[in-house]
Design brief:
alpha/beta, 8-stranded mixed beta sheet, 3 domains, 50% helix, 417 residues, 3-stranded antiparallel beta sheet
């Protein structure tokens, strides 16, 4: 089989082969047709000149077929020749003209965001805005909301159709509205909130700020998209309070599992959501925001390494550990809300990733633990990059749990009693 032909020669020979095959079949077909015309069945005569033409066409077809066979023998298997033709041509057309260099940056395990905030309540109060809380199931929305309500001040009113008996136990139970899916009660209460807002407008217009002192309220609406569907007054409630409530100390916290304006009853009014609310994003929503909106993969990995204790407040990363914050008793909350006591700082605790590392360290004291070793020992860290594991090492060291050894890719963590 000839394989040393130039690609253009192979291509020409292939064209000749296909043309010769086609012509041979046409000649044979013409021979049959002319032969039929040469024989006159009715008169039982044969037309010699047509018979000669038929024979000539047959001979021509045979010669063309012979030529096709010769080409086939010269090229070898035609399909294989076609492949060689294509491969050779592809090589000539796709020669590399440049080399692509990819630089993969490493993340400093000690890195912290420059605009990190640790007191979201202080941030919210300075902004004098409402709160739009976004998070998925298990991201800690309820815990954050209860913590927030204990710090903001004023009378707390909760609209929660899914509240369990022990939820919000530290509040006056008349202020927890909608238990057992009672949406009618929520809708009625929201209507009264709108009337109350109008009363405050009138009172303040007549007597100034002193006339409305002591009537501050913080209203929490759980799963707001459901309220939009079930409570006709909810859309008016959020729009009216968003634009006027702050001036009369009527603050709201609306909770949803998506940060679109539609989920907060503000269809086509995205500007109101961003101008009147502080957006708190928990869990995956925080990480997605860091990656897609802020274009900061380093921040995304920092958020992931911190678990529930790290989230986004507007464009600012926040670190606050609420896993050990108790709201189960009235005494705990009253202590948090006491006017003569300083606000208690939640005691730091460990998320499941940190706890696993600490437990390993206690079992293997003074042994150096590296990211690769940790990922091979458990599937818990399958979704983590090595640099993200090193961030957790650094976080533990910052808490006084163990020490760091090495730098860069060689960074490890050691448990020391």
């Amino acid at each position: 089989m000839t394989t040393d032909l130039h690609p253009s020669q192979v291509h020409s020979y292939l064209k000749m082969y296909h043309s010769t095959q086609t012509a041979s079949w046409l000649c044979w077909a013409a021979s049959v047709l002319v032969l039929c015309a040469a024989v006159d069945v009715r008169q039982k005569q044969i037309k010699p000149w047509l018979l000669f033409g038929s024979a000539s066409a047959l001979v021509g077809g045979v010669n063309l077929r012979k030529s096709a066979k010769e080409l086939n023998q010269m090229l070898g298997t035609i399909d294989r020749a076609s492949q060689l033709n294509f491969q050779a041509l592809a090589r000539t057309q796709t020669q590399p003209t440049a080399q692509l260099a990819i630089t993969v940056g490493t993340i400093d395990a000690n890195w912290k965001p420059a605009n990190l905030i640790t007191d979201p309540v202080e941030y919210i109060q300075k902004k004098q805005k409402h709160v739009a809380l976004v998070g998925g199931t298990g991201d800690g929305k309820s815990t954050f909301t209860q913590y927030l309500s204990s710090k903001i001040g004023g009378r707390v009113i909760v609209y929660d159709s899914d509240a369990k008996p022990d939820d919000w136990s530290w509040l006056d139970q008349n202020d927890v509205i909608g238990r057992k899916g009672n949406f009618k009660a929520i809708d009625t209460a929201m209507s009264k909130d709108l009337e109350n807002l109008e009363d405050l407008v009138e009172l303040r217009g007549e007597g100034g700020d002193n006339a409305i002192a002591g009537r501050e309220r913080f209203m929490i609406a759980e799963e707001f998209p459901i309220l939009v569907d079930e409570c006709p007054n909810s859309t008016f409630w959020i729009k009216r309070h968003a634009k006027r409530g702050r001036r009369y100390q009527q603050f709201i916290c609306a909770i949803a599992q998506n940060d679109t304006a539609e989920n907060f009853g503000l269809q086509g009014d995205k500007d109101t959501l961003y101008s009147c609310f502080v957006l708190v994003r928990l869990g995956q929503f925080a990480r997605d925001y860091a990656r897609t909106k802020l274009k900061d993969p380093q921040l995304e990995q920092w958020l992931k390494a911190g678990g529930k204790k790290r989230f986004m407040v507007d464009d600012c990363p926040c670190e606050l550990d609420l896993s050990n914050w108790g709201v189960g008793t009235a005494a705990a909350v009253e202590s948090d809300r006491g006017t003569n006591a300083e606000a208690q700082i939640p005691q730091p605790t460990l998320n499941e990733y940190e706890q696993f590392i600490v437990d390993w360290g206690k079992r293997n004291p003074s042994n150096l633990l590296k990211a690769g070793m940790l990922q091979r020992s458990t599937r818990l860290f399958d979704d983590f990059q090595p640099d993200e594991v090193r961030l957790i090492f650094a976080s533990l060291a910052d808490k006084g749990l163990g020490t760091l050894e090495g730098t860069g890719n060689q960074l490890g963590w050691v448990w020391i009693e």
